[in-house]
Amino acid sequence: MGEQPVDRDTVSEIQEFMFREALALDERRFRDWLAMLTDDIRYEAPLRVIREGLAVWDLSPTSRIFDDDRQTLEVRIQRLETDFAWAEQPPSQTRHFVTNVLADPGDNPDEYKVHSNCFIYRSRGTSPTPSLYSLSRKDVVRRTEDGWRLARRWAAFDQALINAHNLSILI
Amino acid sequence: MNTKPESQSLAAWVEETREGIDSGRFPARAFNDQAVYDLEQERLFSKTWCFLAHESEIPHPGDYVTRYIGNNNLIVARDEHGEIYANLNMCRHRGNVMCKAEMGNASHFRCSYHGWTYKNSGELVGVPYMKEGYEGRLKRKDWGLVRVRVDSYEGLVFGCLDPEAPPLDEYLGGFQFYLDLYLKHGLGGVEVHGPPDHWIADTDWKICTENFAGDGYHTPVAHQWGFHLGYFPSSGSTHSQGWAVSIPGKGHGIGLGHGPNFPPFGGFPDDLVAEMKQSLSPEQVEVFSRTRTAVGSVFPNLSFLMQPFSLEPGEIGVRFVTMRLYHPVGPGRMEMYSWCLVPKNASQEYKKEAYRAYTLAFGQAGTFEQDDFENWTKVTQAAGMTMVRDVDFPYIMGMDSAPDPEFPGPGHAVVPYVNDTNFRNLWSRWADYLAGEA
Ligand code: FES
Ligand SMILES: [Fe+2]
């Protein structure tokens, strides 16, 4: 970070990619979404723990809400494609609001570290009370011959005690 | 008698419920009702041994976690000598909360209101203006944090609010034999992989306890995706094979599901199997080597599950263990704590694999967990309907099943695995407490 700012065109391409990725999730086009990931994708959400102000960590170094790679994400999507993914029948209505997108050079020439805020609205069935999730994301996106791809998703929930009976959605 | 009419009718309902359980009926109302919830707080959670923490969550002197028994928030801390204490998380001066974090490390707890200071074991050691203000009338030893009895088994720390209750050993009543599968599957015992997943759900804690006391019946339907895609090594047609074991009069129960072609101790690495043959008794080896899925509940609200999960369809996969606590926070509402336990001495590689399998299957985004909670919230919702107040559910599977005489373990073991015997035992224990007779 710091050395060379990412040029505006690249930033706006990255932004558009992030928005399209979110759109694929909200439109439940999960196969399209999978196609936006690199084969070596790491997809993780560390667990937040409420600790005293000066504690060394408040995101658990070992516990994860999501701890996925390409193979396990495929399992999740395959599951959603069966008739028995009861948690998503009827499906959640989600809306990912992706903001504050900042891009910095990554560790490899074609990669960028992308910070974004993500706010997810999720409603289920006829319930008037939605689940709301606010997350900080530190992703890595990669420019490939076939376009932009997500190489790493790291997302931390801003809440320790998640107010939802399950997390059958993607973040 | 000046009993209020409502409590009179509740007492009558409890009596009716007790009789119903004996004939295989249990009322839906139990799963979502303010009066039943209040009675549980008063008569059940104030008397049973309740799970607090695993010792590996607080390995060092000064480590603490905050946990609950019923609606009581407790600090579970390891003191400077390594002893574990549980104290009410409330200052004795005016009741301020002492520890506001979920976990941490402290040699002393200092109250942020007037500054009373306690050792992490709970003794009061510091009172500002002690001389000037209290003029010798305050005896520090009388005003320590309110202590709760603790006892442990193989790393599991339990607390009990009732000083008269029988010791933990007696309370577990032989269920230790089964707990060992989760706690001694390795010579070094087990540890938590990290802090527990933690979420809140509109589900009654009892539905979860019941499900984990051996509800093999729901698996082929609720988790059919896993069978369908081959990620779970069992099939609908053979899924009923195995034992359901309950500890009569104690409420604990476990389901031990078998698989016809499942290899002995399938899904464990070889070195761990070798260790288990030493850490477990021959009877335990005989029972557990055949077990594919072990799903059990310690009465009232602690459960365990061990099962293999495979990422390669048709393969046996890797075994993981989850421990879960269902903390009731209102009628039909609970806070879920879910841990992954791993053998302490196992290779990092196996620990990591087991944790990933756990996360994918039973963490809060777990693909099995998701569907369970979907069902459980709906059951809870239904149980809150006015019309359902007088509706009973059938608990009549295996009503006349005789215990298996060949079974080498303690308790009442019946076949098949798909059976309501454990649940009748669970609910009759629960009803004993609610009737004030336990
Ligand atoms: S309330 Fe804690 S010192 Fe007064
Ligand atoms: Fe289940």
In short:
The complex is a heterodimer of chains A (171) and B (438). Chain A is α+β, with helices and mostly antiparallel strands and 171 residues long. Chain A is built from three helices and six strands; from the N terminus they run ααββαββββ.
Structure write-up:
- The complex is a heterodimer of chains A (about 170) and B (about 450).
- With about 170 residues, chain A is α+β, with helices and mostly antiparallel strands.
- Chain A has helices at about 10-25, 30-35, 70-80, and strands spanning about 35-50, 60-70, 95-105, 110-125, 130-145, 145-155.
- In chain A, strands 2-1-6-5-4-3 form a 6-stranded mixed sheet.
- In chain A, strand 4 (about 110-125) and strand 5 (about 130-145) form a beta hairpin.
- The model of chain A has no long low-confidence stretch (mean pLDDT about 95).
- Chain B has about 450 residues and is of the alpha+beta class.
- Chain B is globular and about 80 Å long.
- The two termini of chain B are about 25 Å apart.
- The interface between A and B is large, with 37 and 41 residues.
- FE2/S2 (inorganic) cluster binds next to loops of chain B.
